[in-house]
């Protein structure tokens, strides 16, 4: 009989019924994501009414740096644990201490550079904000491997409970602080409380306790993988945050606050759908990474369904931007509408690019991803530099347009060199859904010219239903999208039948 520790790290049992397990896991995580979406939208609407745009901009100046540190805190080691075919208790324990050391180091570094951050933006209040936010690095660092073990074992029900509980308590803490008049400090309290609860629950749910560091555990290859992935995350983070940094530097907290809230709203479909899907996709692809044909079919199948569910939503947001901003941000945010529209168009890039990145990581191509991230950063630097001649609006436009017309096509072509999927096959999976989405959005735009509705909630409800009906009709007319719809319905039936059986 294998001992308990060996059973904690084995994944052989996951290879049996992998498709059914992945579908069931996706169902659990998507259901949890629906609850998290409600919490996010509710907190967004409440906080936008309790705080000023400048409050969000002020904290966004700090999060440019703190989110970078959060990427480094992981060190790429969580994915090293998930992606590895075989791993031992000693190896994971060593990775735990590395993550803990990274968390402490980044916490101390954040405290040391806090005056420099305040000096860069010429905003003295940022010093204490940066100090407070730095404690999240230590809190989060000591639970990275616990989460990785839960994901490796595909225990997504436990992960969903952790995410919902920690987010709910964080939201309650933030809203309470805002209601009490703590202004921008409410936006600091919210993530600190969330990280604290999440760390406690990860330890409890995983049931794993690390041992002391040991030699000759064979952890070196895992650290090498983590270094490449951390490099990719670092460069990718610089690319993502170059735009908000440039806006804050050029136009100040007010403009950055408008961008920050607009970006948060437009990224909701991707941020809600993508993480749960990717959390399931990572271990699923890792388990079939050594079977090229099975890997190819899995990648194309997931990509087709992911695009089918996101393209239409992201493009529709551009047409309905004024109602969305009014409903979720309230009065006083009209200046965010044009920014929201540009970011809504760009947001169609995120699901595809995110999936391709996860696919490269899950198949062990972290170094290839690092190289692409460097190319992306260079393209973005040139784009933002050109856009800066037209102020913050030009920066946002350059960010969005370069993503749609340069970075995404380039990434698909580049990725085809490292996976058993050709560039043409990627395009065949993408273009039909894109064509249907453009057709539905065109009809939506035309209808808005003739049907006038003052109430934003009613307008969104009516036009979203009409657009969805048009999109579904167009998808049924095209063979590739009709096949994806049919397969999606079959997966939903599988999900329901599995639930009924387990009950």
UniProtKB/TrEMBL annotation:
Bilayer-crossing residues are 94-120, 126-144, 156-178, 184-205, 306-325, 337-358, 370-390, 396-414, 426-445, 457-478
Major site of localization recorded for this protein = membrane
Quote the InterPro entries the UniProt record gives: Poly_Biosynth_Transport
Q: Which residues form a coiled coil?
A: none
| Cell compartments where the protein resides | Cell membrane
Known PANTHER family for this protein?
Answer: LIPOPOLYSACCHARIDE BIOSYNTHESIS PROTEIN WZXC, PST FAMILY PREDICTED COLANIC ACID TRANSPORTER
- Protein name according to UniProt: Lipopolysaccharide biosynthesis protein
* UniProt organism field: Marinobacter adhaerens
């Amino acid at each position: 009989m294998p001992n308990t520790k060996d059973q904690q790290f084995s994944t052989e049992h996951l290879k049996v019924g992998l498709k059914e397990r992945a579908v069931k896991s996706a169902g659990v995580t998507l259901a949890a994501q629906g609850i998290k979406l409600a919490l996010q939208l509710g907190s967004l609407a409440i906080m936008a009414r309790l705080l000023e745009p400048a409050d969000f901009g002020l904290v966004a100046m700090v999060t440019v740096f703190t989110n970078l540190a959060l990427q480094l805190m992981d060190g790429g080691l969580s994915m090293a644990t998930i992606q590895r075919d075989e791993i031992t208790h000693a190896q994971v324990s060593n990775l735990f201490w590395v993550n803990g050391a990274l968390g402490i180091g980044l916490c101390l570094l954040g405290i040391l550079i806090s005056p420099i951050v305040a000096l860069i933006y010429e905003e003295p209040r940022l010093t204490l904000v940066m100090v407070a936010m730095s404690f999240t690095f230590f809190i989060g660092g000591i639970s990275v491997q616990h989460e990785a073990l839960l994901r490796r074992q595909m225990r997504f029900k436990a992960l969903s409970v952790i995410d919902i509980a920690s987010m709910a308590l964080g939201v309650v803490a933030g809203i309470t602080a805002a209601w009490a008049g703590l202004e921008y400090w409410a936006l600091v309290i919210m993530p600190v409380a969330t990280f604290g609860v999440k760390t406690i629950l990860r330890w409890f749910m995983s049931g794993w306790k690390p041992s002391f560091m040991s030699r000759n555990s064979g952890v070196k290859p895992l650290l090498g993988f983590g270094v490449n992935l951390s490099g990719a995350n670092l460069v990718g983070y610089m690319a993502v945050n170059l735009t908000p940094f440039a806006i804050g530097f050029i136009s100040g907290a007010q403009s950055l606050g408008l961008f920050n809230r607009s970006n948060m709203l437009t990224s909701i479909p991707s941020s809600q759908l993508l993480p749960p899907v990717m959390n399931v996709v990572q271990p699923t692809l890792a388990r079939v990474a050594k079977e090229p044909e099975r890997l190819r079919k899995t990648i194309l199948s997931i990509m087709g369904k992911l695009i089918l569910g996101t393209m239409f939503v992201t493009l529709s947001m551009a047409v309905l931007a004024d109602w969305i901003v009014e409903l979720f941000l309230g009065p006083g945010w009209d200046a965010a509408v044009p920014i929201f529209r540009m970011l809504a168009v760009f947001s169609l890039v995120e699901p595809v690019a995110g999936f391709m990145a996860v696919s490269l990581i899950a198949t062990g191509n972290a170094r290839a991803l690092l190289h692409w991230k460097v190319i992306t950063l260079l393209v973005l630097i040139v784009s933002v530099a050109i856009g800066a001649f037209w102020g913050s609006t030009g920066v946002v436009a350059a960010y969005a347009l370069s993503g749609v017309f340069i970075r995404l096509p380039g990434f698909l072509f580049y990725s085809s060199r490292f996976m058993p999927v050709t560039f043409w096959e990627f395009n065949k999976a993408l273009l039909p859904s894109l064509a249907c989405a453009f057709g539905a959005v065109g009809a939506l735009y035309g209808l808005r010219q003739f049907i006038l509705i003052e109430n934003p909630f009613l307008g969104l409800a009516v036009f979203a239903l009409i657009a969805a009906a048009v999109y579904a009709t167009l998808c049924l007319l095209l063979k590739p999208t009709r096949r994806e719809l049919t397969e999606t319905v079959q997966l939903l039936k599988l999900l329901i039948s599995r639930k009924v059986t387990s009950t």
